[in-house]
Recover the amino acids of this structure.
């Protein structure tokens, strides 16, 4: 969205929502990376919870991939995710129909469970028949998506000579043209996708834990990167920094991805930090508002039709699913009961996965909290956002249980 | 920018509601604003300070931390929540020399408890001191002595003496409703596995690593230590027994009329995590992944057990104390409240849910209110330094026995191990210059 102003952008988004509602179940799309094809946590697929059986939709299959927080990326009939068993990470390519392992690849990687279960925290990124994986300690792979052959492999922390932040690298790789952008170093590192060579890197300071978010301004591809102390805008081709917003968070935990809408950038973090809306028109952005009422500790909110929906609060306290007006920061409604859960949107509905494995479909409406359907899909802690692709919802627990929930209409009838 | 004041007010009032369980409690002191400083401004320190701010009787005048980012973030949060604009310090000595402080809150890592507490007391402040009261027993004793001789109130962060469900369980026990208690088991269990070393690195920018280590040996920086990992390093803390242990040992001391255990034996180690590593290139943690300690009192025995593998295991709960009596067992838990399991299986269980403040499940507002009551009334606080010292000593005797590899007989009146010079040497530690071990 190059020169669109925010209003236009919101209207555009609105139009997308309407179109997708018309297309309804006919729309099916892949989810090739963290936060989906448009990097906003929103699928254009529509789901029909009114057709769900009382006992909940069918679980097509379950799989066990090991400890970690990696979501599943889906392209065509294959899903990709990572887990850790006994200090070894394994990337799995799973058949999305059956859950059968198509291929897998393992590499040594410390579990390092500091305040959490440990294991991989990034999600594989799929582009042009290649799967890119960034492990917590800098192991970076490009795999042939068909057979798992390693196209290239480097340790990016070592090659770029930058430090690993306290909880390891958690941002997922972002594909921008020929480059792979990583949240490694203070303001990112770019890798040539073809060869695995470093195109540029940034200062040897702590990275944050969010995934780079792309945008285009004046025809130039840019990205918002979370460092340990700031959110920064960088030019993807050159690595040049355009601006930074200082953003200190307890433990350097800048984990939630920025949300970009036209000239606005929404930031949110947990602990005592809260949220802010920035407006970036010229050089340094201005803060439009600040609020303590939306603290996205781990997972980002989604922005639908001028309203944000997200989990406010921290691990080990009462949290709430909230609806917040984007332009003002005003909270429209707040609903406890999801723990430190996460969410994804399916067109005009929210798919909220509680930290105890309850999947709830909620209307994305500022009017009130309207739950439409609920199903218990997993046991144990769930901190990883659900993924909707081609009529199936993929959810994952910290211990590595994956459930594929079939929500295609045909499956319910 | 528009600082949306309403949001902050909303956030503040929500917090105080959650904290006090009643609308905006301004304690008894309507106009009195205690000039408060926080030394150690990380996660727990800010929880304590937010409890103080919510009570409405503080003015936050100063913050101290060895990490510049932590300090900046804490200052911004204080301003957001209270409107106060505290001055920031990297060294507690400078803070205490430049500021007039009524109350100092101390929430540094354990090895940094005694010196700042004693300095604050000597500067005339009342102190809210996080547990344990020392990293070695004589540090804790020195802090106690300083408080007594200066006549200052020191409230220790043993908020489990104030939380409603703990108090009700204790009432139940003291009424004899579990019968005669012969054995207490304390435990904290969790999951975990083998540990790999992490590479040492330069300390993060803005962290005064030399000051962080302070009186402890200077070791290479490692991300496992900071932020938030010091408890697993015995130079800076005392592992699980020195953390959770102090709370549960204190529950035992709250219940019994005896002041201290007579014999202590502990064993444990790192069978799962593996041998500790510390070299120029890399390190692991070095606290035990599992430990058993036996505390023999005159009239009963108490045991401590922790493990950081197998999760909850075969138990119904993973944390708390079992008070085992002739009529049944009382489990005093944390988030699971307390439960009485009658010896006669036909009798009904008795259970009360926990009432805790969030985030992190504590009773800080009650701890703070009681602290202010003690300052204003001249009566000792519920978690007086004397109480904190006893619970801390008990935990450190367990660690002392573990390190020594043998049991010890404790004379708690003289605070000496009986007939064991090696053990008595472990009541203190060598300080790294220029820091000087406090006089007990």
């Amino acid at each position: 969205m190059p020169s669109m102003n925010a209003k236009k952008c919101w209207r555009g988004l609105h139009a997308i929502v309407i179109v997708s509602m018309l297309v309804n179940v006919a729309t099916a799309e892949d989810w090739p990376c963290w936060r989906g094809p448009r990097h906003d946590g929103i699928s254009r697929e529509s789901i029909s919870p009114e057709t769900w059986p009382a006992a909940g939709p069918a679980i097509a299959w379950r799989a066990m991939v090991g400890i970690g927080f990696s979501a599943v990326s889906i392209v065509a009939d294959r899903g990709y995710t990572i887990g850790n068993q006994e200090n070894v990470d394994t990337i799995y390519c799973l058949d999305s129909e059956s859950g059968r392992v198509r291929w897998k690849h393992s590499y040594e990687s410390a579990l390092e469970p500091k305040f959490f279960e440990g294991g991989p925290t990034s999600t594989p990124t799929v582009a042009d028949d290649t799967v890119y994986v960034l492990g917590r300690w800098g192991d970076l792979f490009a795999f042939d998506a068909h057979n798992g052959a390693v196209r290239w492999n480097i340790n990016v922390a070592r090659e770029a000579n930058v430090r690993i932040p306290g909880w390891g690298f958690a941002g997922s790789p972002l594909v921008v043209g020929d480059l792979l952008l990583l949240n490694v170093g203070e303001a990112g590192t770019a890798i040539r996708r073809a060869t695995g060579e470093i195109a540029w890197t940034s200062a040897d300071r702590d990275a944050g834990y969010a995934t780079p978010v792309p945008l285009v301004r004046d025809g130039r591809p840019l990205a918002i990167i979370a460092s340990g102390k700031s959110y920064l805008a960088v030019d993807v081709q050159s690595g040049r920094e355009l601006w930074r917003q200082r953003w200190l968070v307890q433990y350097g935990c800048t984990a939630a991805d920025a949300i970009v809408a036209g000239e606005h950038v929404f930031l949110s973090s947990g602990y005592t930090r809260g949220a802010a809306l920035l407006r970036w028109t010229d050089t340094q952005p201005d803060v439009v508002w600040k609020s303590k009422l939306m603290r996205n500790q781990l997972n980002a909110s989604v922005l639908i039709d001028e309203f944000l929906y997200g989990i406010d609060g921290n691990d080990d306290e009462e949290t709430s699913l909230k609806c917040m007006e984007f332009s003002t920061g005003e909270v429209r409604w707040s609903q406890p009961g999801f723990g430190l859960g996460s969410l994804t949107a399916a067109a005009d509905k929210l798919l909220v996965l509680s930290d105890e494995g309850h999947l709830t479909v909620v209307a994305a409406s500022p009017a009130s909290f309207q739950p439409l359907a609920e199903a218990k899909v997993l046991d144990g802690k769930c901190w990883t956002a659900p993924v909707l692709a081609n009529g199936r919802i993929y959810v994952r627990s910290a211990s590595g249980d994956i459930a594929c929930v079939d929500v295609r209409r045909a499956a319910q009838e | 920018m528009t600082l949306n004041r309403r949001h902050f007010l909303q956030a503040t009032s929500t917090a105080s509601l959650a904290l006090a369980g009643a609308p905006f409690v301004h304690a008894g002191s309507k106009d009195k604003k205690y000039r408060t400083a926080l030394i150690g401004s990380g996660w727990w320190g800010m929880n304590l300070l937010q409890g103080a701010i919510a009570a409405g009787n503080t003015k936050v005048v100063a913050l101290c931390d060895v990490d510049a980012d932590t300090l900046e973030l804490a200052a911004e949060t204080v301003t957001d929540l209270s409107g106060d604009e505290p001055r920031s310090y990297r060294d507690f000595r400078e803070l205490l020399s430049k500021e007039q402080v009524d109350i100092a809150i101390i929430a540094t890592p354990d090895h940094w408890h005694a010196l700042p507490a004693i300095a604050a007391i000597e500067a005339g402040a009342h102190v809210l001191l996080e547990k344990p009261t020392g990293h070695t027993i004589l540090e804790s004793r020195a802090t106690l002595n300083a408080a007594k001789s200066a006549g200052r109130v020191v409230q220790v962060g043993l908020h489990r003496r104030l939380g409603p469900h703990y108090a009700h369980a204790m009432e139940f026990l003291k009424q004899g409703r579990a019968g005669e208690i012969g054995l207490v088991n304390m435990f904290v269990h969790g999951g975990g596995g083998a540990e790999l070393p992490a590479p040492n690195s330069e300390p993060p920018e803005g962290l005064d690593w030399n000051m962080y280590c302070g009186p402890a040996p200077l070791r290479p920086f490692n991300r496992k230590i900071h932020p938030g990992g010091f408890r697993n390093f015995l130079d800076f803390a005392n592992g699980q027994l020195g953390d959770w242990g102090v709370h549960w040992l204190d529950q035992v001391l709250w219940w019994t009329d005896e002041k201290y255990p007579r014999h202590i034996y502990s064993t444990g180690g790192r069978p799962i995590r593996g041998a500790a590593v510390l070299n120029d290139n890399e390190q692991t943690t070095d606290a035990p992944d599992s430990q058993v300690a036996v505390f023999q009192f005159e009239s009963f025995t108490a045991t401590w057990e922790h493990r950081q593998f197998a999760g909850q295991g075969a138990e119904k709960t993973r944390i708390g104390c079992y008070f085992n009596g002739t009529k049944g067992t009382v489990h005093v838990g944390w988030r699971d409240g307390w439960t009485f399991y009658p010896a006669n299986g036909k009798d009904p269980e008795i259970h009360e849910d926990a009432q805790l403040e969030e985030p992190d499940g504590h009773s800080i507002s009650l701890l703070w209110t009681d602290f202010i009551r003690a300052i204003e009334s001249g009566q000792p606080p519920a978690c007086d330094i004397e109480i904190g010292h006893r619970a801390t000593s008990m935990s450190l005797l367990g660690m002392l026995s573990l390190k020594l590899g043998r049991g010890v007989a404790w004379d708690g009146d003289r605070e000496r191990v009986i007939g064991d010079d090696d053990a008595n040497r472990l009541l203190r530690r060598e300080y790294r210059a220029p820091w000087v071990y406090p006089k007990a």
